[in-house]
């Protein structure tokens, strides 16, 4: 079942096994950094074989994504608090993109995915089901009149989150030349995203 080893204390569930691998990876990254962390290092830290690691995480990129998700709750809370200062769905959408572009590079675990250098590391994480669900949850928790913009169902929130996260990802991975200021980025996103979130009654 992939529970061989584990320093004599095998996990009781698949979820616990994954959590312990993520904890081991986090310890390796904190100690040695991304450049000096391999799947073998994570396996040694967890007390299992590489084959056991592969059972739960086929690639190092998958572990990095899991580490980032495990550490993202504080970031999500800060984003939610920031977005509550804006009063309309359009402004919340715009500011979510600006906040993400500016804040993610300074986040200790989220930035790991950027440091990995391979574009698919970060892209794969941000467009995964788990990350899109997180984006939808952040939007849903911001107390604006989403219904006035036609955003009412879980599918609506998920779709809006995916569009905004893909937009944020594009600006983050491929910044404009010359670089946009916050106000310039805000103006650009508002011009093209804002009309989709304005009440048809206004």
TrEMBL record:
It comes from the Bacteria. Residues 15-75 form the HTH tetR-type domain. Pfam families: TetR_N. SUPFAM superfamilies: Homeodomain-like. The keyword Membrane does not apply. The keyword DNA-binding applies. Residues 38-57 bind DNA. Keywords: DNA-binding. This is TetR/AcrR family transcriptional regulator. It comes from Lentzea indica.
